[in-house]
Every structure is written in C-alpha cells, then in structure tokens.
Design goal:
Elements lengths: L1 H82 L1 H5 L7 H6 L5 E4 L9 H4 L1 E3 L1 H6 L5 E4 L20 E4 L5 H5 L14 E4 L6 H11 L3 H4 L10 E5 L3 H14 L2 H7 E4 L5
Parallel strand pairs: 5-6, 6-7
Antiparallel strand pairs: 1-3, 1-4, 2-3
Amino acid sequence: IRKRARIGAASGNAFSSVKTTQTTDDDSELLETRACQNATDDRLISFAQRWTTNVTSKKKCRQAMRSSSEAARSFSDYYRALYGSQRWDGNGADGLCHAIMEGPTCHAALINRLHDDIVPCKESGMEPIPWVRSMNTNLDALWIDEGMERLPTPSLCPSTSLLNYYCLDPASLLPVIALNLSQYDSSHNTPAKVLDMCAAPGGKTLAILQSLLGGTAQTSNSADEGDLHHVIVANEASRNRRNRLENVLADYVPLPVQRSSLVITGYDGT
C-alpha cells in the first residue's frame, strides 16, 4: 500500500510539473503574440500620424501658395487701376512701375549732417546720389555700387554719440525733396511747421529736419532763444513703431534739436 502511494504521489507531482510547464510556455507565447501586435499597432499609428501630417503640410502649402497668388493678383489689380495698364504693364519708360516694384530694393545712406563726422564717399565705398544734392542742397545721400552687397555699419561720433548715417530706400527722400523745405533754412525769417503723419521708422523725419536746419552740426547743436525754431510733428499711431521712431531720433538728432523742434504724437491719421 505504501509503495503504491509513493508511486501515485510521484506520478501526480510529475503530471503537475508537466502541466505547469505547459501553462508557462502558453503564457509566454501569448505575451509574445501580444507584444508583436502592439508593435504592429504602434507602427501603424506612427505611419498614420506621419501620413496625416504630410497631407496636412501639403494642404497648408497649397493654401499658402494659393493665398500668395491671390495676394499678388490683388496687388497688381490695385496698382493697375491706380496707375493705368500702360504705366503698370506697358513697355518702355512709361511701363516700368510693375518691374521696379518687383525688383530688388535699392539701399542708400542718408548722411547725418547733424553729426560732426561726415562719411567720406571714397573711403566708404559708396557713391553720391546725384539727384539728391541737386534738388535739395541741405541733404546728402550715398548709395552702394554694384560690387557691394550691403551698407557698412554706421559709426558713432565720439563727441555727440550720434550715428553718422541712416539706411533707407532713396525713394523715401522724394516726398521730402518735393516739399522744397530748404527755402525755410536759417536764411529764411519764417519758421516752418511740418507734419509727418506716418513717421516711423524715422528716415523722412530725419530728412525733414536736415532740410529745415540747413544740415550743419554747428546750427543744429545750438538752441538759443533767439534762434529760429522750426517744428516737426512726427506722428505714428502704432505704439511699437512709435518706440522705434523715438529710438531712431535719439540716435541721430542732438538733444537741443529734439527739445526745440520735435514733437512726437500717436494719433490715428485716418
């Protein structure tokens, strides 16, 4: 009886061991199968996300291109109606408007004649703009030649801490020249009052100041009560652009002139 009991117990333990081993193997296979499925799902999700992002990017790109094309068409239609088809699209000198506006920007330097150190033309690698000096004797401007990619960095005058020239598009000087403000310089007995309605970033305001003051450091640094004081109102509605305007004028205009001749405002000019 004891012998049969020991044999039965041994057989039961062996059967239990085989069953446990078989169960463990089945669980391992199940886990591996689930891991493979999860990895496959992750790859599918990742692929779907990349595909969605790619499609979305292409849609945004097409929308941006379509918006850009519509904006360019609206731009051309507006100025074609303003200037006329012949001036906007035509050939020859009368049809250069569109080509000029799409062409590269012309960079120029308005010499700060309120500065003690005038930039030498030859040493700077820039050439004078001939029509500026001929139309307004109180303004000097240079532009870069074809071999230069950008203007040299303006320098500070040691005695006044003012910058020696301001970078701008030379076309910005045309409205100032058209005002013929040089007639109101120190030789004229009538003070001038000029409103620059959209003054930022400040290039035209600087040109107006130099036109009225005669464009010399000697006259601009004086602020005696007996002097003739012109008034320039520099208006800019945008606060951020007005901050830039104030910084530009502080960098280029002597403090006595700022106090006597400049008024900065922030009204809406519409």
